[in-house]
């Protein structure tokens, strides 16, 4: 095979003026191929412009959604459908993402996630830091279902765990919440057959491995970047004050 190509390569060298020119041509081709691959990856990413707000009921997603958009406090109630709006980044008005607040009720959340997951550039998973200790198993259950979904695994959207309601004295810290979630997720992956199924229940392939086999689970093992932030959609001064969303807003700038 190599012998058959040699005459052609020799002829190409003569046309180009020697081996140095051929090396330059090969280098340029390599750069062009790398650029095309980069454009393809960026194109797929730019096609996903949504930031999904997920979490259990009463985690504070809808108030957080309202605060990000208007800065104002408003009374909220349990959502039974999605809400979406364009969020313009404060540091760059020309850059924006679409925020989508999804219902947290157990009978609705997977249905709505199935509808919007393919469009997700990033996911904000909102946790009630005050109720976390009694809700940890339910929180971990929902998060587990998100993390083993085949579309989420393939697209690997950035993930932020927003530890909300930090204005309340009994709120758990982001560090404790991370440790407890890692422990619960590790238990879930041991006790379940984690097939990467679509959220409608249809199987799409072989078994998914959450994290690294043979090691206790931690978030660094996931294909997407996972961060934790403490926040308060209500704010320390209640309805009249400002929300404490600085960490969340900085993260949105990074993922936009």
Automatic annotation (TrEMBL):
Record keywords: Endoplasmic reticulum, GTP-binding, Membrane, Nucleotide-binding, Receptor, Transmembrane, Transmembrane helix
Residue intervals passing through the bilayer: 20-38
Matching Gene3D superfamilies: P-loop containing nucleotide triphosphate hydrolases (3.40.50.300)
Pfam families per record: SRPRB
Gene Ontology cellular-component annotations: endoplasmic reticulum membrane
Topology with respect to the bilayer: Single-pass membrane protein
GO molecular function per UniProt: GTP binding
Main location: endoplasmic reticulum
Location relative to the cell: Endoplasmic reticulum membrane
Keyword Chloroplast carried by entry: no
Family: Belongs to the SRP receptor beta subunit family.
Protein name: Signal recognition particle receptor subunit beta
Phylogenetic placement of the source organism: Eukaryota, Metazoa, Chordata, Craniata, Vertebrata
